[in-house]
């Protein structure tokens, strides 16, 4: 797997979610700058929204993976419902998020 070391040090159980998946992404911290509401995967926020970066978000429904590179590559971060005013507060100050993928229940 690209960007992974030779060992796994932790894991997380992701709850099943059925229904709509919605997330708002913001260009700047504290929900500033451009805002776009997403309901499906986005392989490049630069190409789709002309946004150079995503620095805060509000996950309204479902669970999402945010990737530091376009096309779902590089390091990733799991996001569950709730607000994130800035990724610096989560220890992710050096990361830029450029693509997002929904975590869906494959039994739908």
Topology:
Blueprint: E1 22-28, E2 32-38, H1 45-49, E3 56-61, E4 63-69, E5 73-79, E6 82-84, E7 99-103
Antiparallel strand pairs: 1-2, 1-3, 3-6, 4-5, 4-7
Number of strands: 7
Question: What's the CATH architecture?
Answer: Sandwich
Tally of discrete structural domains: 1
N-C termini distance? 27 Å
**Major beta sheet, specifics?**
4 strands, antiparallel
Give average pLDDT, whole number.
84
What overall geometry do the principal axes of the alpha carbons give?
Answer: globular
Strand content: 35-45%
Low-confidence stretches: none
Radius of gyration: 14 Å
CATH superfamily: Crystallins
Strand order of the largest sheet: 2-1-3-6
Task: Provide the CATH top-level class.
Answer: Mainly Beta
Helix-strand string: EEHEEEEE
Tell me about this structure:
The protein has 108 residues and is mostly beta strands. It has one domain (22-103): Sandwich (Gamma-B Crystallin, domain 1), CATH 2.60.20. The chain has one helix spanning 45-49, and strands spanning 22-28, 32-38, 56-61, 63-69, 73-79, 82-84, 99-103. The longest helix is centred in the middle third of the chain and has 5 residues, at 45-49.
Keywords:
single chain, 108 residues, globular, Gamma-B Crystallin, domain 1, four-stranded antiparallel β-sheet, mainly beta
Quick summary of this structure?
The protein is mainly β and 108 residues long. 5% of the residues lie in helices and 39% in strands.
